[in-house]
Design brief:
The strands form 3 sheets. This protein has a 7-stranded mixed β-sheet, sandwiched between helices. The protein has a 4-stranded antiparallel β-sheet with strand order 1-2-3-11. It is globular, with a radius of gyration of 17 Å. The protein is α/β, with parallel strands linked by helices. The chain has helices spanning 37-40, 55-68, 88-97, 108-117, 157-167, 181-187, 196-206; strands spanning 8-10, 17-19, 25-26, 48-49, 52-53, 78-82, 100-105, 124-128, 142-148, 168-179, 192-193, 209-216, 232-238. The protein has a single domain (53-238), classed as Vaccinia Virus protein VP39 (Rossmann fold), CATH 3.40.50. The longest helix is centred in the first third of the chain and has 14 residues, at 55-68. Helix 2 (55-68) crosses helix 3 (88-97).
Length: 243
């Protein structure tokens, strides 16, 4: 079971408290993102360029990181992305590698864009829902579960990871990307802020094996990444059933 943060202590001159046991930072964000057209099409995020989705660039970042962590990313059959946005990763897996892909996305605009532009079929489907409220039994089991800049938004990220563990097939991988505490300390845009130590501990508390955490500088397309604070943390772990 993942730490439940019974020993929180205020960090001076910040809006965060730190758990003395697992070192997670718990904040009190006041203004959540609005996941509407203006968010997805903003120049800062560069999800689109000249109205075309930038899926190749996005896919290559994660493939490179997973290669460096020795995760055989493309060796599996069934993939789940939680908070899949406009489907950049999933659509590449479906179109270029013929994988079975399932997404969960709460944004009305993003879900409608995918349905109208990419189209859904038996090997590419997206449920419009908040993952925390969704009946997980309709999703099934997966070889690879992924979320990028999503975990820090949830009310109860510990329960989300426990649900993911239950949905993994034996030898399946969990992969999450989150901003680190330095990034959040300066930009404070989420309720949870992670360190590599916290992620390693949480993954091991889940029962995952081969746990590793990689780092990248913050990226949003063609921007000056060196000017952005902190790092993005890329954590992986594999489910290995006893026997």
């Amino acid at each position: 079971m993942i730490c439940k943060h019974k020993n929180l202590e205020q960090i001076p001159e910040t809006r965060f408290k730190i758990c003395k046991d697992c070192k997670i930072w718990k904040g009190n964000r006041e203004s959540p993102h609005a996941y509407i057209k203006e968010y997805y099409t903003s120049e800062f995020l560069q999800i689109f360029k000249h109205k075309i989705i930038r899926r190749g660039w996005y896919f290559d970042i994660h493939k490179t990181v997973l290669d460096s962590l020795k995760v055989p990313f493309l060796s599996y059959n069934r993939y789940l992305e939680i908070g899949c946005g406009v489907g950049r990763l999933l659509w590449t897996l479906r179109r270029d590698y013929d994988k079975e892909c399932v997404g969960v996305e709460s944004s009305d605009w993003a879900h409608k864009w995918m349905e109208e532009t990419l189209g859904f079929d038996e090997k590419f489907k997206v449920f419009k829902a908040n993952f925390e409220w969704l009946d997980k039994t309709i999703l099934g089991k997966f070889d690879f579960i992924y979320m990028c800049h999503v975990l820090e938004h949830f009310d109860n990220p510990m329960k989300v990871l426990e649900d993911c563990y239950e949905m993994l097939n034996n030898n399946g991988w969990l992969y999450i990307v989150v901003p680190d505490q330095e990034h959040q300390k300066r930009m404070h845009t989420h309720n949870w802020a992670f360190s590599s130590e916290t992620l390693k501990l949480w993954f091991k508390q889940l029962g995952l094996k081969d746990v590793k955490v990689g780092f990248t500088k913050p990226y949003n397309g063609d921007g000056d990444v060196e000017s952005l604070p902190g790092h993005y943390l890329h954590a992986v772990g594999r489910k290995v059933n006893a026997g």
